């Protein structure tokens, strides 16, 4: 069951060629702990460019390689969700009007703006991480913590939200409840294990930024959309990663 859920999670959250069909999808959408578990793999792969810090001490190059690796592994499905949420956020009208905008395949000004800002902010966060740490191990751990935290945010949203409408999001959100948060919480612990004291504040901030973002997205989604949609899950992932990376860099610099 767990292996099927992991395979389904990898198929949904990444572009890795793991296959998977309806059985794996059903296992994944009822097992929220898979979100952070997949986050460890995605974070480790995306962080590989930071291992080049000693060989290629160019912050801009490492940051660019990080972005390229990240989106090569994850694809743009969740970024598209963020763009849709951006379009819905600037719409004047009720929840029904915003839901209509979410279903529109065209990207408007609001979506384009929030998407560009998120990518730029992510690149700046990676750049800041290179210049602030100059330590590949610390940088890698912060990147992984931010990714795991972003995925944990998705799991939190799936466990606490109510579906906004029938669709991909409701297939996940409607199948989970608050009981799923305990295994999700336990899955976060490895990101903090064996951390040197100097890195612990940065890892904690990077890790828990994703769930904090998820609570804000949930509040907005419930008020603006009447519930949580698949796009809200995607937006939580993208925003949680950005905030987590910056929070990790700031905490490392200050503490």
UniProtKB/TrEMBL annotation:
<dbReference type="GO" id="GO:0005886">
    <property type="term" value="C:plasma membrane"/>
</dbReference>
<dbReference type="GO" id="GO:0051073">
    <property type="term" value="F:adenosylcobinamide-GDP ribazoletransferase activity"/>
</dbReference>
<protein>
    <recommendedName>
        <fullName>Adenosylcobinamide-GDP ribazoletransferase</fullName>
        <ecNumber>2.7.8.26</ecNumber>
    </recommendedName>
</protein>
<keyword id="KW-1133">Transmembrane helix</keyword>
<keyword id="KW-0472">Membrane</keyword>
<comment type="function">
    <text>Joins adenosylcobinamide-GDP and alpha-ribazole to generate adenosylcobalamin (Ado-cobalamin). Also synthesizes adenosylcobalamin 5'-phosphate from adenosylcobinamide-GDP and alpha-ribazole 5'-phosphate.</text>
</comment>
<keyword id="KW-0460">Magnesium</keyword>
<feature type="transmembrane region" description="Helical">
    <location>
        <begin position="199"/>
        <end position="217"/>
    </location>
</feature>
<dbReference type="Pfam" id="PF02654">
    <property type="entry name" value="CobS"/>
</dbReference>
<dbReference type="InterPro" id="IPR003805">
    <property type="entry name" value="CobS"/>
</dbReference>
<dbReference type="GO" id="GO:0009236">
    <property type="term" value="P:cobalamin biosynthetic process"/>
</dbReference>
<dbReference type="GO" id="GO:0008818">
    <property type="term" value="F:cobalamin 5'-phosphate synthase activity"/>
</dbReference>
<keyword id="KW-1003">Cell membrane</keyword>
<comment type="similarity">
    <text>Belongs to the CobS family.</text>
</comment>
<keyword id="KW-0812">Transmembrane</keyword>
<keyword id="KW-0169">Cobalamin biosynthesis</keyword>
<feature type="transmembrane region" description="Helical">
    <location>
        <begin position="33"/>
        <end position="56"/>
    </location>
</feature>
<keyword id="KW-0808">Transferase</keyword>
<comment type="pathway">
    <text>Cofactor biosynthesis; adenosylcobalamin biosynthesis; adenosylcobalamin from cob(II)yrinate a,c-diamide: step 7/7.</text>
</comment>
<feature type="transmembrane region" description="Helical">
    <location>
        <begin position="107"/>
        <end position="132"/>
    </location>
</feature>
<feature type="transmembrane region" description="Helical">
    <location>
        <begin position="138"/>
        <end position="160"/>
    </location>
</feature>
